[in-house]
Design brief:
The complex is a heterodimer of chains A (609) and B (243). Chain A is mostly helical and 609 residues long. Chain A contains 28 helices and five strands. The chains are: A mainly alpha (609), B mainly alpha (243). Chain B: Keywords: Cytoplasm, Initiation factor, Protein biosynthesis.
Chain lengths: 609, 243
């Protein structure tokens, strides 16, 4: 960090000073391409998007004056905050950084920057001694604010990419090995999460040809900019973080029960630092998300094959990460037609969110988590229609409450298709197309604008609806079969007003719909599973006679009884541990009243033991 | 025993392919040839490796220059026989609508064939096997048969296996005419096929007996609640300090 503190005014007045010597800028900004997956399809990272500032003194002076004016406008509270924040980062004081990140930044955003950008990094640079690392972190927050509160323009999009590269490059390719920086876990997650969000946002924005200005068209047609937000460069970052942190090796070693010392040896210099360790894990989840966005559902599950989906996983501390993991894994299972697995994943996380709710009402991420939860309720409704289950009545009731109209329609065969479509489009990830419109070719671009290809979401919707359609006959046939223990096929066809042979073929489809691959035992791998029966009704055809059997579930008393006993115990403990309502004020000395809380602590400790 | 282990990693998969499928080398465009050769090997030798084929499509997705429509059609043809598993849709999901290459010398056959392949797939998914054979043998699909499926060794039998899986799960006994319509076989060919499956064919009644398997044996059961001691730990442990 010491080396990064530039004192020279000349460099400071550049719009985007580099952490490294400017001559080396091209090399330095390569995000560890060789380490991870090679330099495929990358022709140099990018040239500085902004033309060099004219060296002419006049321009320099004008620029400096403009910056000074901008500096003068920064409210004092903000200046103090930045100085304080910088100090916390310099001292690697995690507690102070956390406070600044969690509350300081958001409070000041509400107060001063709810509708405008924060001051540019160059403007506040004098406040932080031009500390390049801090300025990179500052820009990370600056651009995130632009994306979430304002409309990023093309420069913001290019520069936020640049800044992310600088940050990851600094972390991954510092000459002295791992960087001893500490950041709150939440921030580390937000860095990875935002990186992928901006990537996705760029693709969505780029695909809309018609709304581009001349300048934007020019920049997008420029081949030397093709690297910006390319899928390869994003994958490079994520894979590099995964490899440097040795996170996969860590998870495997942990599962094998290796000792702390052995694990420390395995993960090495980088992986034993919390910053790299967490970034490595978050990158796994980031990779899961990127692959889902690009429609590769098997690869998505394969990259997180080592991740254990349970609440004991220490990474559940960052709730947003925990929720995202389940959402994307669950969605993959839907596209793999493994509805029971999807249901189990959604039930787990939705219950977790319900329990966490009380602690999260004040969190700024609460909205985001709630939105994801709503989408998972919708996905649950879809899965439940395709593979009815009584896994969790509580969640099912919330779904019926929230999506009542659609829920009823889902079980109506072909008529239900619009409801499937509506819920799918609402709840699916924001799919992107890997390839840009042909900006480099005017003629092709015009043709593209005239007749744009369908949105990526429509592409995946069509595939999903094909799966739904294959099951369209299932609800009706099932409802008929449930009325009988045996029935002649011709008679059943007569009820349905259908051709007997076609009806028999539909019966095979019904049978297929009641079987699914699912993780029932202790499968390690997310892609593993066994063939299970998913329906409470089964049947078999003996030549022309259909025989039907039903699995009935006896009433469940015990779960209810256990839950309520535990609840009663908690209430009783609560009552026992409360101080007596009327302390005898007249006789009690101060000493005694002080002793009361201490007493309480002991009692609580005992009941817990 | 995992039902998907062969799908995730077929025993026939060579080590080199395994390292590509599971490692970061899968993104290296210069490896596309290895994976394409492996696909053609699968076609000649009745092997199938879905994940390796998806890796080809992934490379096409990121590098439109590599796009080879013949390879894509072959991947989809191979994926047809995996029904009821979702391989076909997983493959299509990776195909970018925008990727169709305009710089090719010959017209791209994929846009013309894709709707038919999708149609064939959904007929299999819906177990409408007779309709599948009718469409497959129709004049409209001559190109597909003459240029693609004819090269895929055992293609028709691999589709019959899809039908056999569905029949095995659904029937205890099935009329031979019905079975024949699913397999697109009749007479001696059908009898030979049934014999090879090891199923019993009663020529007097023309009924085929399907051997018992977990899916065609049904029993009505009542599931009773099963309480594990672990669920009661809180209740029991609470009782101890109270004593």
């Amino acid at each position: 960090m010491e080396g990064g503190r530039w004192q020279s005014r000349a460099i400071m007045s550049q719009p985007r000073a580099s952490l490294w010597a400017t001559e080396e800028i091209d090399e330095d900004l390569q995000v560890d391409v060789h380490l991870a997956i090679g330099n495929y399809g990358q022709n140099g990272l990018y040239d500085d998007a902004q033309p060099r500032i004219d060296e002419a003194t006049l321009v320099a002076v004008q620029h400096q004056m403009a910056q000074q004016a901008a500096f003068a406008q920064i409210p004092d509270a903000v200046k103090r905050f930045i100085v304080h924040f910088h100090q916390a980062v310099l001292e690697n004081n995690l507690a102070e950084i956390t406070v600044a990140y969690d509350s300081g930044w958001n409070r000041l955003t509400e107060k001063h920057y709810s509708k405008t950008e924060w001051p540019e990094a160059e403007v506040i640079a004098p406040l932080v001694n031009d500390d390049q690392l801090f300025l990179i972190l500052y820009r990370e927050l600056y651009y995130r604010h632009v994306y979430s509160r304002l409309q990023p323009d093309i420069d913001d999009r290019f520069h936020s990419y640049e800044n992310s590269c600088e940050l990851f490059n600094y972390l991954l390719n510092s000459e002295d090995g791992p960087v001893p920086l500490q950041l709150p876990e939440q921030w580390l997650w937000d860095i990875v999460d935002e990186f992928i969000y901006q990537f996705q946002s760029f693709y969505v924005w780029r695909a809309r040809v018609k709304t581009k200005t001349e300048e934007e068209l020019g920049m997008l047609a420029d081949g030397s900019q093709a690297q910006v937000w390319s899928a390869y460069s994003v994958l490079n970052v994520l894979y590099s973080l995964i490899q440097k942190s040795k996170i996969n090796e860590f998870i495997v070693a942990k599962q094998q029960g290796k000792s702390e010392a052995e694990i420390a040896e395995i993960v090495g210099d980088y992986g034993s630092l919390p910053l790299y360790h967490m970034l490595g894990y978050f990158s796994l989840i980031g990779l899961l998300r990127v692959h889902v966005l690009l429609g590769d559902f098997t690869l998505a599950l394969k990259v997180v094959e080592n991740v254990e989906l349970n609440q004991k996983n220490p990474f559940t501390r960052v709730t947003a990460c925990h929720v995202a993991t389940y959402y994307y894994v669950g969605f993959c299972y839907i596209m793999l037609r493994r509805y029971p697995d999807a249901i189990r994943v959604f039930v787990q996380i939705l219950n977790f969110i319900l329990r966490m709710r009380q602690y999260h009402t004040r969190s700024y991420q609460y909205d985001q988590i709630n939105k994801t939860a709503d989408r998972m309720y919708a996905l649950f409704a879809i899965c439940n229609a395709l593979s009815p289950s009584r896994l969790d009545d509580n969640i099912l009731n919330i779904v019926k409450d929230r999506y009542g109209d659609q829920f009823a329609k889902l079980s109506r065969g072909d008529e239900g298709l619009p409801a499937f479509e509506e819920l799918f489009l609402y709840a699916c990830p924001k799919f992107i197309s890997a390839n840009p419109p042909p900006y480099e070719d005017q003629e092709q671009l015009a043709a593209y604008a005239e007749d744009p290809p369908p949105e990526p979401a429509q592409h995946h919707l069509a595939l999903f609806l094909a799966d739904v359609r294959a099951q369209a006959a299932v609800p009706t046939l099932r409802s008929f079969l449930k009325l009988y223990t045996s029935l002649d096929a011709a008679k059943l066809a007569g009820f349905l007003d259908a051709d007997e042979e076609e009806m028999v073929q539909q019966m095979m489809a019904v049978k297929a719909a009641s079987r699914s691959v699912s993780r029932v035992g202790n499968e390690q791998n997310l892609l593993d599973g066994q063939m299970i029966s998913t329906s409470d009704m089964d049947f078999v055809i003996n030549e022309n006679m259909v025989h039907i059997s039903e699995v009935t579930v006896g009433r469940r008393f015990a779960g209810w009884f256990i839950r309520n006993t535990e609840h009663a115990q908690r209430v009783l403990d609560g009552v026992k541990n409360s101080p007596l309502p009327l302390a005898p004020q007249t006789t009690a000395s101060e000493v005694e009243s002080k002793a009361a809380p201490a007493q309480k602590k002991v009692a609580w400790g005992m009941s817990k033991a | 025993m995992s039902a998907t282990s062969e799908w995730v990693s077929p025993p026939t998969r060579p080590e080199l392919i395994e390292s590509l499928v599971s490692g970061v080398d899968r993104y290296n465009p210069s490896n596309v040839g290895i994976l394409e050769d492996y696909l053609y090997h699968q076609i000649r030798s009745r092997e199938y490796d879905c994940l390796a084929n998806l890796a080809i499509l992934k490379l096409y997705q990121f590098n439109p220059d590599l796009y080879n429509p013949d390879v894509v059609v072959n991947i989809l043809v191979k994926a047809l026989a995996s029904v009821p598993f979702p391989d076909f849709n997983l493959s299509v999901a990776l195909m970018d609508d925008r990727a169709s290459n305009n710089n090719m010398d010959e017209p791209d056959p994929l846009p013309g064939l894709l709707p038919y392949l999708t149609n064939l797939h959904s007929l299999l998914q819906q177990c409408r096997f007779p309709a599948f054979w009718t469409l497959y043998r129709s004049d409209a699909l001559e190109t597909l048969r003459d240029n693609y499926t004819v090269e895929v060794v055992g293609f028709e039998n691999s589709i019959r296996e899809v039908a056999v899986r569905a029949v095995k799960a659904t029937f205890q006994r099935i009329g031979s005419k019905r079975l024949g319509s699913y397999l697109d076989l009749e007479g001696g060919e059908l009898e030979d096929y049934i014999a090879r499956l090891g199923w019993k064919f009663d020529s007097s009644t023309s009924v085929v007996e399907v051997p018992p398997n977990p899916d065609n044996q049904i029993t009505s059961t009542v599931v009773q609640e099963d309480i594990k001691l672990q669920q009661l730990t809180k209740v029991i442990s609470h009782a101890i300090p109270a004593v």
